[in-house]
From TrEMBL:
It is an enzyme of class 3 (hydrolase). One of its GO terms (molecular function) is DNA-3-methyladenine glycosylase activity. GO terms for biological process: base-excision repair. The keyword Glycoprotein does not apply. Its EC number is 3.2.2.20. Zn(2+) binds at C5, H18, H165, C169. PANTHER family: DNA-3-METHYLADENINE GLYCOSYLASE 1, DNA-3-METHYLADENINE GLYCOSYLASE I. This is DNA-3-methyladenine glycosylase I. It comes from Shouchella clausii (strain KSM-K16). Keywords: Glycosidase, Hydrolase, Metal-binding, Zinc. The keyword Cell cycle does not apply. It holds the Pfam family Adenine_glyco.
Amino acid sequence: MPKRCSWVSNSPLYEHYHDSEWGRPTYDDQQLFEMLMLELMQSGLSWLTVLKKRDALRTAFASFNWESLARFTEEDVARLKEMKAIIRHEGKIRAVLTNAAVARTLANEHGSFAHFIWSFAPNKQDNLSEQAIALSKALKSAGMAFVGPTTCQSFMEAAGLVNSHEQDCYLYQPAK
């Protein structure tokens, strides 16, 4: 059995996430938006809770397609708040809808959402926390909600903007 990062529990779902998704560089607009929204949903909860609800969240939020989310109404918010299979925090639900419109605008302004996000990738001498704070400020300034520095740092690690695998993890690669 390979040695994994210490935060990985012995849950097969967690192991699969760590081994096949977490920390892999992601450049797809839709995937990056989904990853950021899942990090938002995780706030105050365990990541395993989010992983267990991810399929239901994808279904509930139209695969995190920002064009589809732009058409959601107050009736949709009410419906989502009643869905037991998802995280039903109204503030988080509304944040996903607000953030979808902002992500679409950022994609239009910067050529892609990925281009905007990756402009915050720390280079070797940058401090990840400082870059996460900068990304958080930029996203909030653009109108996003529930995207504080901790959420942004977790997102940057998950989306592969930085390799945060621990040194004794089999997926660790030293910075170049």
